[in-house]
Amino acid sequence: MLIRQLSVFLENKQGRFTQVAKLLGQEGINMTAFSVSENADFGILRLVVDETDRALDILRHHKYAVTEVDVLRLRCPNQPGALGRLMDVITQAGVFIEYMYAFSEGPSGYVIIRPDNLEECAEVLMAHKSQLTSVSDLYEL
């Protein structure tokens, strides 16, 4: 399933992620998945939330540098080798993965993927019966 992800650029200082997490929480917005990467000067918080438009407005209102990008979210069995098989399907199709992050709950794992070609990657995954999922699917866990 194609979903929207926010990327928030944060100064690489203690407490910056805390500020964003508290702000969104106070506004009743749930972060369903996130990843933080950093270098010496800044960090990038990539997150999927239950109310993307509201989160985008709130973060911009509070002067955060934030962008929006489409990503794919899919279900992957939470067992040895499953992710490798899934990535092999994507690699064999010639799709390049710019970045990804994952989490698991019980028998299922969930993977957020940012490929260089969203449509092609989604078609390849659906042809191999991969389960593309939506943000709301997380609340059924």
From TrEMBL:
Domain (ACT): residue spans on this chain: 1-139
This protein's name: Amino acid-binding protein
Native organism: Tannerella forsythia
Organismal lineage: Bacteria, Pseudomonadati, Bacteroidota, Bacteroidia, Bacteroidales
